UniProtKB/TrEMBL annotation:
UniProt subcellular location: Cell junction
Regions crossing the membrane: none
Keywords: Cell junction, Coiled coil, Phosphoprotein, Repeat
Pfam hit, one: Plectin
Alphabetical list of InterPro entries matching this protein: Plakin, Plakin_repeat_sf, Plectin_repeat
Protein name as catalogued: Plectin-1
Record family assignment: Belongs to the plakin or cytolinker family.
Gene Ontology MF, one: keratin filament binding
Length: 305
């Protein structure tokens, strides 16, 4: 029999070898042999049972080796390929010496699975009030253009943030909850595709933000702004695998290139896409984030006004 999954995948083994493998307990073995000897089951039926048991065991094992990503589960094997966890850590997981929870809580892994915080809202110094970005715009504390790019950056890095209630929401949820107005729904859904992926009109495949820029599906300046926000909050998002990537891996997967890296590491006024409402200068997302204060209650970044 050819083994379809697991550590022996692709190998041809006898039924005898398989029922003596790690997937079967002594009881299992005895019961199968008893049924076969008494003629209750045919050899074909035994093959079916054996394969099913192996497949179910592997499914359970994979579930134990799965991390929660930005929008979908991420298998541990994908994190090894992305150089986010080492082969040694992967082996420890498989052997049960480390749990998914242990690794997910390390800074390195957390950063690539969920990212660090974006600019979540504003802090009004005069009234000592926390506001979400949309509310600050409604009260004329932020210009509409400033508010929209900050909200787009939130959507493109994973979630819209309600800093008052400390909630992270998908765009649809945020509109329903009144955290942003319906007039921004389409615009923010478009920015959220930087996380969920764009559809290539020619192949129908899911492609990344950078690939969508290259194909002219989004305006370059707009794309650069969203990419810069992703990098400033932990790394470029791989929409296919639902997590962030180290820069070298983003290069390999075609989600980033040298030219764009140069543009972002040496920003000119053209690529400084974020307006500082206090000093009235254009900044990069990272520079604006550095001007934020950390909310002592939630740890979220708030822009003081």
């Amino acid at each position: 029999v050819e083994v379809p999954v697991g550590s022996m995948k692709g190998r041809t083994m006898t039924i005898w070898e398989l029922i003596h493998s790690e997937y079967f307990t002594e009881e299992h073995r005895r019961e199968l042999l008893r049924q076969y000897k008494t003629g209750k089951v045919t050899i074909e039926k035994i093959i079916k049972i054996v394969i099913t048991i192996i497949e179910e065991a592997e499914t359970k094992r994979q579930e134990k080796l799965t991390f929660s990503g930005l929008r979908a589960p991420v298998p541990a094997s994908e994190l090894v390929e992305s150089h986010i966890i080492s082969k040694a850590q992967y082996e420890q997981l498989k052997e049960g010496k480390k749990t998914v929870k242990d690794l997910a809580e390390t800074d390195a892994v957390r950063r690539f699975l969920h990212g660090s915080d974006c600019i979540a809202g504003v802090y009004v110094e005069a009234t000592k009030e926390k506001l979400n970005i949309y509310e600050a715009m409604r009260r004329n504390l932020l210009r509409p253009s400033t508010a929209v790019v900050l909200l787009e950056a939130q959507a493109a890095t994973g979630f819209l943030i309600d800093p008052v209630r400390n909630r992270k929401l998908y765009v649809n949820e945020a509109v329903k909850a009144g955290v942003v107005g319906p007039e921004l729904h389409e615009k923010l859904l478009s920015a959220e595709r930087a996380v969920t992926g764009y559809t290539d009109p020619y192949s129908g495949n899911t492609i990344s933000l950078f690939q969508a820029m290259k194909k002219g599906l989004i305006v370059k300046e707009h794309g650069i702004r969203l990419l810069e926000a992703q990098i400033a909050t932990g790394g470029i998002i791989d929409p296919v695998n639902s997590h962030r990537l180290p820069v070298e891996v983003a290069y390999q997967r075609g989600y980033f290139d040298e030219e764009l890296n140069r543009t972002l590491s040496d920003p000119t006024d053209d690529t400084k896409g974020f307006f500082d409402p206090n000093t009235h200068e254009n900044l990069t997302y990272r520079q604006l984030k550095e001007k934020c204060i950390e909310d002592p209650e939630t740890g979220l970044y708030l822009l003081p006004l």
